[in-house]
Amino acid sequence: MKFLENVSLAEYTTFKIGGKAKYFCVVKNEEELYEALDFAKGKNTESLIMPFFILGGGSNILVSDDGFDGLVVKMEMTGVSFEDGEKSDNKTDVGKILVTAQAGDNWDRLVAETVKKELWGLENLSGIPGTVGAAPVQDIGAYGAEAKDTIVSVRAIDSTTGAARTFTNSECQFSYRESFFKTAEGKKYIITSVTFKLSKIPSPNLSYKDLKEYFSENGREERDSLSSRPPSLSEIRKAVIEIRKGKFPELSKVGTAGSFWKNPIISNQQFEKLKIRYPNTPSFSFGDKIKIPLAWILDNVCGLKGYTKGPVSLWTNQPLVVVAEKGTSFKEIESLTCEVTNIVKQKTGIDIEKEVQYIA
Ligand SMILES: Cc1cc2nc3c(=O)[nH]c(=O)nc-3n(C[C@H](O)[C@H](O)[C@H](O)COP(=O)(O)OP(=O)(O)OC[C@H]3O[C@@H](n4cnc5c(N)ncnc54)[C@H](O)[C@@H]3O)c2cc1C
């Protein structure tokens, strides 16, 4: 296994920004992962002496211009297996299939494969870039579905002891763009595979506004003859991909990591105050709190639609998405995003949080 030195990280991220990794390796199986951990430990057998970073598809990170002074481990272990739930004694497993995918598998290829096999559960998450191993880290979500809805377990290796552990869904502590794997304790775990429970029984989830509209308007003509039945798995996947095309830029043309910020979650009291100033603010209940679509705030309250500063902009079709021209520096991104964060705070009193993770 090769440990490369001074590897530019820009080409391994969708933002295409950032400096070099002091050391870099690609792991294709668990043995190689242990080898990488040994390398990071050096002669010190007790704990890691070198910082290390686990890299998937690089679609949710922003690397600093100074790069990463440690070992970057790129996860490329692949392989998908299917197990029929009907073989289990558990009655609730009838019609269910357990799908286990390795951490380095491409997320969207997994979704495509499950759709092809007529397995329900991942179709609304079509088109999200990145790897399977990163999906539980921020509990990826889109179009009314989240990874946590189908994740049964996550297998991970404790980087400090080398011990393997299987986390149940509840042990993963999933919440909106969060999980145990983002906590200080959780960061020591390297996810090696994820098991999902999918269903052979059709269960279309068209709860999300854009999907509902797609099938009631855009899809109407094409589906008129089919209007007596709900959309198929492949129709839903096609719809999600089409809707996403209108929202996100093409990764081959600009650098981006998708939504830069999370939608803010605020108290009822804070929301009542906000509504006095901006009565049309849309909202969704989120447990005992309120979730606000930040894109609406950026457009309608802050007037930042398409805001551009040098080579960095808020994407016109979806202002949560920060895009950067080739050759943009980390500092230029930070300059625009800090300004936006301050404007939102001034106008609404809300502290917005980054969804993208900084690597420095
Ligand atoms: C155009 C675009 C659209 C997007 N749309 C969505 C969307 O709709 N919904 C959504 O939720 N996200 C979206 N994202 C964000 C991103 O695709 C997801 O967060 C994705 O899961 C990141 O996967 P990755 O493999 O690229 O992770 P990376 O960016 O490589 O890593 C992200 C984090 O996960 C950690 N990590 C990665 N692999 C492992 C592992 N095996 N074990 C432990 N930690 C690991 C990394 O250390 C890092 O902290 C979008 C991004 C882009 C660029």
Summarize the structure.
With 360 residues, this protein is an alpha+beta fold. The chain has three domains: 4-75, Uridine Diphospho-n-acetylenolpyruvylglucosamine Reductase, domain 2 (2-Layer Sandwich); 80-199, Uridine Diphospho-n-acetylenolpyruvylglucosamine Reductase, domain 3; 255-359, UDP-N-acetylenolpyruvoylglucosamine reductase, C-terminal domain (Uridine Diphospho-n-acetylenolpyruvylglucosamine Reductase, domain 1). It has seven helices and 20 strands.
Percent strand: 25-35%
CATH C-level class of the largest domain: Alpha Beta
> Helical content, roughly?
10-25%
Biggest sheet, spatial arrangement of strands: 6-7-12-10-11
pLDDT averaged over residues? 93
How many helix segments?
Answer: 7
Write down the Rg: 21 Å
Question: What molecules are bound to this protein?
Answer: flavin-adenine dinucleotide
Q: Number of domains in the coordinates? A: 3
Contiguous low-pLDDT stretches (5 residues minimum) are none
SS class: alpha+beta
Largest sheet: 5 strands, antiparallel
CATH topology value of the largest domain: Uridine Diphospho-n-acetylenolpyruvylglucosamine Reductase, domain 3
The CATH architecture of the largest domain can be given as 2-Layer Sandwich
